[in-house]
Amino acid sequence: MVKQIKYAFRMTHIDNIPHIVRCGLVRASSPLRDENYVSIGDNQVINRRNESPVNDYHLNDYISFYFGPRSPMLYVIQHGYNGVCRVEPENIVYCVVGIDDLISNNVDCIFTDGHALNKLTKFYKKIQLPSINTIVKYDDVYSSRWDLESDLDLKRRKEAELLIKEDLAPQYVKGYVVYNETAKQRLASMGIALDKIVVVPGYYF
After folding, report:
1. 192: buried, middle or exposed (CB in 10 Å: 19+, 13-18, 0-12)?
2. Does residue 145 sit within a domain?
3. If you average pLDDT over residues 27-34, what whole number do you get?
């Protein structure tokens, strides 16, 4: 059976979860934005995205997701490389949304076949999202490595992105992936049903 890309993953600090439960996943420019938002990203990359135009907007005007876990950015965040503040894996949560939900509700989005800042990457319109599995390969985005000498383009492809142009209400978050039982119990204490929380240490480094 051929594996299919069915979900998109947004990484966030666990301290942001209560706001996500109340307001959903929102844009940085949204009136619903969290004034106490805890960033875990690379400021240099964030600044580049702020300056990168896409369809009359900039990349950081979108809510960004990956199509698979264990991204190179997560590796940087967990290890504190490139001047990024190191974050323990149990403090990082994946918010998971379903591709079919986005399609059926006609959510305003675009997506890429690689890292959005890479010049080799192509952008696709939301009308092409139902064809995601002919454009982005499951094995690429779920690969546990990206440093293969036999495939120097894998790192770019693994970081294929879903970019959503509107706020997503809380019900779009189908579930949460966490590193360990401690993180699961923290989310449960925030009012999240246990059946929506999955512990997958293999999604981390």
Report:
1. buried
2. yes
3. 93
